[in-house]
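User: Hey, quick favor. My workstation is busy. Could you predict this chain's structure for me?
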Amino acid sequence: MNTTSNRRNAAGAPPRLSSQAMAFVLAGGRGSRLEELTDRRAKPAVHFGGKSRIIDFPLSNAYNSGVRKMAVATQYKAHSLIRHMQRGWNFFRAERNEYLDILPASQRVQENKWYLGTADAVTQNIDIVDDYDVEYVIILAGDHVYKMDYEVMLRQHVQTQADVTIGCLTVPREEATGFGVMHVDENGRIVDFLEKPADPPGMPDDPAMALASMGIYVFNWKFLRELLLDDAEDDSSSHDFGHDLIPSIVKNGGAYAHKFTESCVMSGLETEPYWRDVGTIDSFWRANLDLTEVVPSLDLYDNSWPIWTYAELTPPAKFIHDDESRRGQAVESLISGDCILSGADVHKSLLFTGNRAHSFSKLDQVVSLPNVDVGRNADLTKCVIDSRVRIPEGLIVGQDPVEDSKWFRRTDSGVVLITQPMLDRRAAILEGGISWSAEQLEGK
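Assistant: No problem, here it is.
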């Protein structure tokens, strides 16, 4: 549904609850299922959509919803994430009562204590949240792609007088093993909650589907504060929202579900609510290429709900050469600023800022992160290329599964991840005549 009308207050309407709320974004995850893409960066810092990073989506949702107080808890390899927020999210003004705090795991409580779990990340920063002087806290995951108006969820939370309101969506039952799964009654109250069950239960009215948590929680701060302090004293707790705090609240009858369909933001072009956990190479590749569709599933051109990010100063994309076999062109593709297609043929691909594709090269269904250089006569199909990679002349990827798997990381569905260390190892072996065992190659 389009929530534009929900965002416009008429004269005399009650104040927006978002002005009394803060967003606490959990952005410390490694994202190991993204393999080498998170060797140098946390999952929320991974690039997405041509010029953004994944963290920009929850932050933009909060800002567009009217939330002007935010905190981002970081932990795993956080430098690129922190640098991105410092550059792209530095427009908050304290004199307007706007704040964005970056909260690295910094042993504030004990010298040997990092963030022990999602709840502990908030517990260790209780004093900082206290300083915001807010009524409500919205707990957000920093690694999902979607557009959502949190004001709608806040209003439901107040109307139901819930202890916690949990954002949820319906997913196929076989895909729900990585989610918290819940059962609700006719009033939307959650009567059972299972964190990442091996055999997720189906919905009563649709056994093939499960009601899954989005990792979005709304609390009254006073209630959550006491809950966190009690949890910190419990040595048997894993100090995690999904494993510990939420099941306890459900047991006491104070948890309610909020359906994503009621607060998703759609421009009118999207045909259904869009939410993606881009936590695997396949899902990351697919979600980026979704944007190349004639009518994309996620509309990034909706100026009424912009995805804020670091706006680099770049020259326009450039397409050069117009010979029959050497034409710089791109079809059904997104080409970012500072890209030069020099006699290269690009089809159904997404090229991030600063890419170079040289003469006679071909890219088909390729997601190429920033500052990639594709050499002459390279032929790449169904690839994800990490940033700052130099593709050698004549490299062919995507045509021979055995050869691809020998050098690169190839998923079961045939998507190939290419990083610079993989290419360096390949070059050293081919140029030096070195013979490597299967176990050594597996370390690629």
